[in-house]
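Supplementary Note 3. Input sequence used for the single-chain structure prediction.
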Amino acid sequence: MTTLDRYLDAATRENTRRSYQSAMRHFEVEWGGHLPATADSIAHYLADHAGRLATNTLKQRLAALAQWHVEHGFADPTRAPVVRKVLKGIQMLHPTIEKRAEPLLLGHLAQVLTWLEGAAGIAQSRGDYAGQLRHLRDRALVSLGFWRGFRGDELLRLQVEHVRIIPGQGMTCFLPRSKGDRQNEGRSFNVPALSRCCPVAATGDWIALAALTEGPLFRRIDRWAGIHTEPLHANSLIRLLRRAFAQAGLPSPDDYSGHSLRRGFAAWADANGWDIKTLMEYVGWKDVKSAMRYLDGADPFARHRIEASLSPQITSSLVLPAPGSAPPLQSGGDSS
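The predicted structure, written as C-alpha cells, is reproduced below.
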C-alpha cells in the first residue's frame, strides 16, 4: 500500500469501509452482478431482493455501488430515474417498521454492574484470573458506554493512552475520530466520577488489574487470562452485552444491542430534564433529527397527559344507559 493509498483508506471510517466491502461482494459474487454496472442491472438487483432485505439495507447497498463508481471514474448509475423509481416502489409495497434497540434503563444498569462486580469477586476468590479480568472489563465497558452515550465502535476504538483519570473528579477520553466528527479533528469526552455506578472507578479498576499502559482499552481475554493486543471485534460486542445482561437476570436480553447503552442514557437524561441542546452537546449529535431517534419521551403514548386532562367533572357527566334500555327522552325541541 502506497502512502497515498494509506491516506485515502484512512479517510473512510472502518465500519463504513467494511459494510461497503460486504455490499460489493454481495452484488458481484452472491448475485452475479458486473462492474461497472448499468442502471438497469442495479434496478433488477433491487427488485430481486425486495421484501427480503430491509429498505435501509438496500439504500446502503446503493451507497456502496455509488462510491465504487465515483472512485473508479465512472458515472453513478444509482442516480438514474429507473433505480430511484424501483426503490420508491419497494418502499410502497414493502413498508418496514424501524427496529430500535431496547434502551438499558438505569435500574437495569445498576443490576448489571452489581452482578459483574460480585462475579469478579467470586472469580478472584476461586483463583480464576481470566474470569476476574473479563468481568471487570465488561463492567468498565457497560458503565462507560452508558454514562458517555458512546456508540459501540467508539468504545472499541478507545486507547489507554488517550484516557486520563483525575481521582475524585472524573476522566477524559480522547477519540481521534468519530461519526459526528466530519473534519476528523478528534474530540475529548469528559466522564464524571459518580457516587454509584461510577464509570471512572470501573475503568480504573480494569486498567489497573490488566496492567494496561497503551493500546486498545477493551480487548479480548482468552481462557488462560491472556490479554490480547487487538481490540474486541465489533461482531462480539452484542454477544458480550447480551451475555452479561442474561447473567445479571435482565428480562429479554436478546432485545438489547450495541445502541442500548446510548439509548438508555438518552432516555435517562430526557426523563431528568436535560434540554435537547445540552444532550446533543454531551453525546455528540450534530442535528436534532439524529437525537430525536433516540428519545421516546417520558410519556411515549401520551397516556399521562391525556389522563391529566380528563377532569372528574367530565367523566361523571358521561352517564351511559343500561343495556337494552331506551335512550333518554330529550326535553323540548323538535322531535323529528
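The chain has a mean pLDDT of 84. The domain at 3-93 is CATH 1.10.150.130 (DNA polymerase; domain 1).
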